[in-house]
Queue: 2 jobs
Job 1
Amino acid sequence: MLMYVVRRLLQAVPVVIGTTFLIYFMVFAMPGDPILAMFGDKTPNQATYDALAAQYHLDQPFLVQYGLYMKDLFSGNLGTTFSGQSVGEVLARTFPVTLKLAAMAIALEFSLAVILGLFAGLRKGKLFDNVTLVIGLVMLSVPIFVLGFLAQYFVAIKWGWASPTVGSDTSIANMWLPAVVLALSLFTTSMRLMRGTVIDTRSRDFVRTAYAKGLPGRRVIPVHVLRNSLIPVVTNSAANFGVLMVGATVTEGIFNVPGVGNTLYQAIIRGEGPTVVSFVTVMVLAYVVINILVDLLYAVLDPRIRYA
Amino acid sequence: MTQETTPVTDSAEPLVSIKDLEIGFQTGNGFVQAVKGVSFDIFPGETVAIVGESGSGKSTTATGIIDLLPSNGRITGGQVMFGGKDLTKASKQEIVRVRGREIGYVPQDPMSNLNPVWSVGFQVREAVLANNMAKNKKDADRRAIEVLQEAGLADAERRMKQFPHQFSGGMRQRVLIGIGLAADPKLLIADEPTSALDVTVQRVILDHLESLTREKNTALLLITHDLGLAAERASKVIVMYQGKIVEAGPSLELLQNPQHPYTKRLIAAAPSLASQRLKSSRVVAEAPQGDEIDLAAASAHRHEVVEQADHAGTPAIEVKDLTKVFSIRRGSFRSEPFTAVDKVNFQVPRGTTMALVGESGSGKSTVAKMVLGLETATEGEILIGGKDATALNREEMLAHRRRMQPVFQDPYGSLDPMRSIGSIIQEPLDVHKIGGRKERENRVNEVIDEVALPRTVLSRYPNELSGGQRQRIAIARALALKPDVVILDEAVSALDVLVQAQILQLLADLQEELGLTYLFITHDLAVVRVVADDVAVMERGKIVEHGKVEDIFTNAQTEYTQKLLDAIPGANIPLGA
Amino acid sequence: MPKPEHFVAPFDENEMAEVDKVKLNEKPSNLWSDAWRSLRRRPLFYISLATVLVILLMALFPTLFTSVSPTDNCQLANSNGGPTEGHPMGFTRQGCDVYARVVWGARTSLAVGLLATAISGVVGVIMGALAGFYGGWVDSVLSRLGDIFFSIPYILAAVVVMSVLADYRSVWTLAFAIGGFAWASLARILRSEILRVKSGDFVMASIATGRTRFSTLVSHVLPNSITPVIVYLTLSLGGAIVAEATLSFLGVGLPTTVMSWGNDISAAQTSLRTAPMTLIWPSIFLTVTVLAFITLGELVRDALDPKARARG
C-alpha cells in the first residue's frame, strides 16, 4: 500500500509540471502581447500592465518565465486579481464555501447514483429501469446553466421554496438549491455505470457461490453485489470532479454563491484574463489532488491494488 | 417423510431422488430445453458422477437441484425429493435453508468463485455463520480456521486475513471445498471441481475431497467431462447426452461393458483410456466408421508410418540451448530476471510429431513463441530446416514464416471475429502476395476441403461456428501457405472429447498426406500418447526428460514424469476385452 | 445402499447427431448485422434518429423551416413580446423572431459539435491506439501526455484558450479549443480496449502469418476495438454541443454576432423574470438535440454489447 501511494505521488509530478506548463504555454506562447491579449477589448492601465509584466517575468526567456512562475506558485504567491487583491487571500475566503457546496452536491449525487443505479440494475428492463434511464438522459442533456436558470425561475422565484441567490448566508438551508442542481447535472454517468456494473456483478460466479453457501439475498446483494459495484463508480468519480468544477463555476455564478467558482465566473464574464488564468491553474491543481485522493480510495476499496 | 408401516434402513432410502427433471433457458432464440426428463437417486455417502460433453445438461442438472440456475433458467417439470420435500416447489426461504447446510456446492473455476474484495477468512466465516455453525464471531473464526485446515491449508490462521488474489488456483479450490463442506452437508455437489487446475494438483485435490467426504459420510455428486476421472472417483456413473441420460450404472461395469452407442463413442475417443488400449498391443487396422473415431486404431497406424520416416536427414526443427529470460516486476520499482526457458535442446525429424509437455508455467508455450518468432530468444539457436531463425532480417523472416504456421489453443480467440471465414483463410496468401485473386480463391477452396468443411462457411463469420469447426478454420489458415512445419499450441485442449478426437484424426490424416512436421505443445499427457512420436517433458523452464513416446510411457526415468503419468485420470482402470 | 442397476436408454430415443455438424442459420450473422437487427426493433432508435435528421436538415437548409429572417426586421417595439401570428415563439429582447433564431442557430451548434468531436476523435484514436498496442516507452510517454490533458477539464482549458484568443473567436477556434482538450478520455478508453483485444490469439496468428505489427494494428486490432469509440463519440458529440453553449453563455464562446443556441440563451438570461420563454425555447432545442445524440449512443452501446444481449 505504501509503495502504491509513493508511486501514485511520483506519477503526479509530471502531471503537475505538464498541466501548469500547458496552461502557461497557452497564455504566453501565443503570438502578440500576452498581457494585452488577456484583456481582450479592454486596455489595462500602465501600472496594472507593469505589475503583470513583473509577475509573469516577461523580460525573461520563455522557459525561465515558466520556472519563475512555478517557483512563485509553490511559494504560495498566486498573483493578484484584477481589483488588486491577492489570489491567495481570495482563495482563503472563497474556498471553504465551494468545498461545502461541492460536498453537498457530491453526497447527493453519489447517493442518487448508487441507489437508483442499484435498483435499476436489479430490475433490468423493468419500468423502474426505463424511467430512471429517461430521467438520467434528460438531466445529462440539459446544460447546467439551463438547469440552473430553470430551478432559479421555478423553484425559487415562482414557487418561493428557496432563495434565488445565496449571497453571504452560506448555510446548508440556504445553499440546497444550487447543490441539487449540481447533483442532478452529475448523477447520470455514475448511475448508468452503477447499473451496468450491478448487472455484470450479479451474474458473476462468486455471487452464485455466495448463494450456494446458504446466504439469503438480503445479505448477498449488499455484501457481494453492491460492495463490488462501488469500485468502478468511485474510480469514475474522478472524471466527475472535472464536470463538477465547471458546473460549480456556472452554478455559483447563477446563484451568486460566494465561492471560488463564482470568482472565476465573474472574472470570465468581465474578461479579466489574468484572474481567469490564476483560478483555472488553482482548479487544475486541485483536480490533480482530487485524482490522487480518488486513486487512494480505490486502493482502499480494492485489495488487489492494496496488496499488489 | 416417515413410513411407519414399512420401516426401511437408512441406507436403503435415497438421500436425493430426482424424477423427470426438466430445465430450460430463455434465450434470444426462444425457449431452449436443456434438461429433458432426468431421473436418478443418490444414496447417503455415495459418490455419483455425471459425465457429458458441453451442452449435455450435466451442470444445469447439478445447479438445478439447489436452484442456482442463471436468471434466465427455469425448472419446467419433475421433482427433486430431498428429506421428504420437493425442492423444485420449495419457497425461497426453504431453499436458502437447504443450501450450504444440507447440500454444499463446489464450483468449477477457482479464479472467479471467490469475491476479490473480501478476505478469505471473511468468506469462510460467512458460510459458517449463515448455517448457524457458530454462536458468535469468535466461535465463527475458530470454526473457519478449522474448515480451512480440514481443506488442507496448512497455515490457515495466517491465511484467514489474506485475499483471494494472494492464493494459487489450487489453494483457492481448497478454500472453496472448505466452504462447501463448512456446515457438514449431507450432499456435496462438485461441478468440474478440478478442470481448471494442473493435473498433479488436480489429483491431490481430488484425493483430499475423496477422503473428506468418506470421513464425514457425505454423498458426492461429481460433474465432469472426463470419463476416466468419473470412473476412478465414483461408484456410479451417469452419462448424459443432449439433456437426457443415455446410460447409467456401476462405473467399472459401464466402462468395461458400455451398451449405448454414445457411451461407446465416448470411451473410444477418450485419450486417457485409449492409451491403455494401445498397451494391449492390439493392432486395429479397421478404418474409422462414420463418426466413430477410434484413437487407438488411428495412432497405431500412424506409428507404423513413423517407423518408416527418414530420421537421418536434416531435422525440420532443431533447437539448441534455447533460453528466455524475462524481467519480472517485483513490487513497484524493482524488477528481477526470471528464466522462463533454460537451455532447451531438441530436434524434430521431418514428417514426425514431437510433443512438448508441461504444466502451467513450465515454459512450453514460450518455446513455441520463440520458434514462431513471436518472442525473441535471449540465447540459443533455432534451426528450421537447417537455417538459423534467430537473426533474420525482415525479408528472411517473411520467408521463414511461410514455412511454419501456428494453430493456437483458444478456438474463440484465434479467429478475428470481424472477418469472414474466407478472408481469414486467405489472409496469409494476401500477406505473402501469392498468386492472383483467382489462385488465392482456389487455394482457399482447396484447404477448406482439406479440413472437411463445406465451402458455404467461407462467407460466414466465426461466431456462427462451433469450437471444433473454428479450430478446423485455424488449421486451414495454417495450411494455406503449404508450410512444412505446424506449431500446435494446446490446439485441442479446449475441445470436447469427441470433437478433440475428430481434430486429432484430421491432424494425423493431414500429416500423412502432406508430410507435415508437428510441434505439439500440450499439458495433457494422455493426448501425447495418441499423437506424438517423440516427447519432451518440461518443468520450470528445463527439459527434464526426452525420448520416444513408448519409452517414456512405459519406463519414465524421472519422478516428475512419473507423477504426471500417474495423474492421468482413469489411466489405471483395467478395461476388459 | 442397493447396488445400482445398469440403465441403458433405448438407442432410438436419442438420435445420435453427427459429431460437430455444421449448422448455419439462413442469414449470416456477425457483430454489426446483429447489432443492426437489434437496433431496428427499438422504437426509441427511430425517434432519436429522426430527431437527428431533422436537426441536420435544419442546419443545412434553415429556409425549409422558416421564411422569417432571424436578424433583419427586428423591432424593439416587439422586445420580449409573446407569440403572435407568424411568430409562434415570440420575440427576443432585441425584438427578433425566436423561432427563426432557433432554426438558424442549429447550424452553429452542430458545426462546433461535429468539428470538436472529429478533432478529439482523431487525436484520441491515434494516441490510444499507439499507446495500447505498442506498450513500453511509447505507452509511457503517450499515457503521461494523456494524464496531463485529462487533468485539465476541457471546458476550463477552452475558457483559457478562448480568453487569450479573444480576437480570433470563431467556430474553428472554438472547435479546436474543445476538441483539443477532450481527447484524453477517449484515448484512455481505447487504450484499455486495445490491451484487451491485442491479447487475443488472432493477433498473434496475424503476426505469425508475416503481417507487420502496424498492419496488424490497422487491419485486426482497431476494427475489433472500435465499438467503445463509436459509443463514446456519439455521447461526446452531445457533450461538445453543450460545451459550445456553456462557453458562449460564459461569454468566451462565439462572438455575440454569431447566431447560436448558447448565445441566445446567454442573451435571454437578463430577461429571465419577464420573458422566460425566450430562454426556454433555445434551451429546449439544445436539450432535445443533445438528448437525441446521447440516446443514440446508449442504444448503440446496448446493441453492440453481446453480453447484454445474450443475457436477454
Job 2
Amino acid sequence: MARFVIRRLITMVLMLIVISFVTFLLFIVALPGGNPAALIAGRLATPAEVHLISVRYGFDKPIWVQYVRTMANLFDGSAYSYQEGFNVMGAITRGAPATLSLSIGAGVFWLLSSIGLGTLAAVRSGRYTDRVLTVLSMVGVSMPPFLLGAVLIYYVSYKAGVLPINGYISFTVSPWQWFRHLIGPWITLSVLFIGFYSRVLRGSILDAQGEDYVRTARAKGLSERRVLVRHILRMSLLPIISLWGLDIAQVIGGGAILTESVWGLHGIGQLAFNAIGAFDTVTLLAIVLLTAICVVVMSALVDILYAVLDPRIRLG
Amino acid sequence: MSEPLLQIEDLAVRFRTDEGAVRAVDGVSLSVERGEVVAVVGESGSGKSVTGMTLMGLTRGPNAEISGSARLDGRELLTMSNRELRAVRGNDIAMVFQDPMSSLNPVYRVGDQIVEQIRTHQQLSRQQAMARAVELMERVGVPRAAERLRSYPHEFSGGMRQRVMIAMALSCSPKLLIADEPTTALDVTIQAQILEELRQLRSETNAGIILVTHDLAVVADIADRVVVMYSGRVVEQGTLDELFYDPQHPYTWGLLGSITRVDSDRSARLPAIDGMPPSLLAPPPGCHFQPRCPHAFERCGEVPELSPRTPDSPGHLDRCWLEVERKRTLRLVDGQIGLAAPVRA
C-alpha cells in the first residue's frame, strides 16, 4: 500500500510539471494576442519602448528560462497582472474563501443528494418514482447555471425575498449570513451534478444487482437493506467518487465561473471570468495551474481511496 | 412414514418477459430425505438452477409467477413472507453457487463474509463467530485457516474459494444444502476433493443435499437418487442404480449415451442428442422431448404423467409413453445404453 501511494505521488508531480509547461506555452509564448511586451506597452508605444519592456521582463530570453522565471514568480507571489497591475497571488487568495465555501458546501450537498436520489431510483427502478426522477434529472442536467441562478435570484431572492440577492459574507463575520448567502449558489451549482451523478449511480447499482456476490449476500439471509448498503453500494459508489473528486477539484480551482458570476461571489471563478474578458494571461495562467493542481491532487486522492475501497487494485 | 425433509409438489415458475411468459419450471415434484444426496441433472435451461433458487426465494420478483408447494420440515417456503424467508436462507437452507470466482464479494475479507452470515442468524460475538469460521475453514480443508481468513477472495484459487463458499454454507448447520454446479468451474482433482467435502458433510450433519449438475460422473460419484429434468419438467427420477442401469426415458438414454469413454473409437463422431432444447416461450405440446426423440409416436402429443411405469420399482418414475419392455430393447445402441440416431427422411 505504501509503495502504491508513493508511486502515485511521484506520477502526480511529473504530471504537474508537464501541465504547467504546456499551459505556459499556450498562454505566454503562443499568446493569442501576440507579443506580451506589446500588450504591456499599450497601443501607442514605439518599437523601442516595446523592445525595452521585452528586455526588462525577459521576453527575449530562451523559453525554458522564461518558464522557470514565470513559475518562480507565480509561486513566490511576485507575479503581477500585465493589464490590471494587481498581484495575482493576492487576487487568488482574496477569492479563495468564497470559492472554497461555495465548492465544499455544494460538493457535499450534491454528493449526498445524488447518492440518495440515485439509490432511490435504482431501488424503485421501472416504477413511478424512478420515472419521475429520470425526468427531473434530465431537467437538472440540461439546466444551465446562469439560467437557474437568474431564475432563483428573480423569484426567490427578489420577488419572495427569502434569500439575499448576491454577494459573499465571510464566515468569521457572521456564520448565519455566510450560510444564507451561499444557499442560492450551492443549489445553482449542484443541480447539474445531482442530475448527472444520480443517473450514473442508478445505473451502477442496477449493474451490481446482477452480480453473483449480491445473490450470495441474499442467499446468506441478509436483510435487503444490508445487501444494499454493504454489498451493492460499496462497489457502486466507486464511479461516483471518482467523478466527484475531479469535479470538486475543478470547482475549487475556479471552475464555477458561471455560478460565481451570477451570484456575485467574487471568488476565483469570477476572477477567471474577468481575466478572460480582459485578456489577462498571467492571471489566467495562475488559475489554470491552480485548477490543474487541484485536479491532479484530487485524482491521486481518489486513486488512493479506490485502493482502500477495493483491495484488488492494490496489487497493480 | 414421516414427511421428508423437503417436499416439492407441482412447482411452477414463470417469468414474464417482453416476448411472453417463460416457463422455466413447469410442474416439478421431488423430495429429499435427511442425509440424502439428490442429484438434479439436465442440460442448460432445463430449470434445474431455477428450481434451487426458487426454494431460497431468490427468483421472487415482480415478473415471476411461482405456484405449487415446497415444504421444508413441513413449513411452506413459497408463501413465506420475505422476513420469514430471510431467517431460513443461509440458516436452514444454504446454497453453494456455480462460480466461486464471482460469488464472493471482492472487497471484503473472506473471514468477514463468513462471520456476517453467522451473526445474521446466531447471537454470537465477533470473536465467537470468528472462532467458528476458523473451525469451518479447517473442516473444509483450508490450510492455515486462521491466517487465511484475513485474506481477500482474489488471493484464493478457485478451489479454495469454493471451499470458502462451502464453509460459509455450512456455518449455520443447514438442514438442506443446495449445491448449484459446485464443481463445474473447477479442475477435476479439486472437483474430487470438493465432492469428498460434501460427502463428509452429509455423513456428519445428516443434512439433505440437492446437487444440481450436468456432470453424470459427479452424479455417479455421490448421488443417492437422481432427478432428470428436461425443459422445465422432471422426465425421470429414481435411485442411482435405477437411473444408470434401467433408464426409462429416451432423454436419459441420450444423456448416458453422450458420456465419452476412454475405450471408444476415437474416429467415430461424439454421441450427442440431435436438435436443440425447445424454447421455453413456446414449448411443444405433449412430451417436450418428442421433437428430438427418434422413438416418438402418436401418443407423444399428450403430456405423459410422471408416474411409476416399471412393475418392480415403485420409486422409479418417468414421463414416457413407450412400453417398458419395448424401451429395454430400444435403448440399446451397439450393446450400450444410448439414444438411437434419428431416422432421416
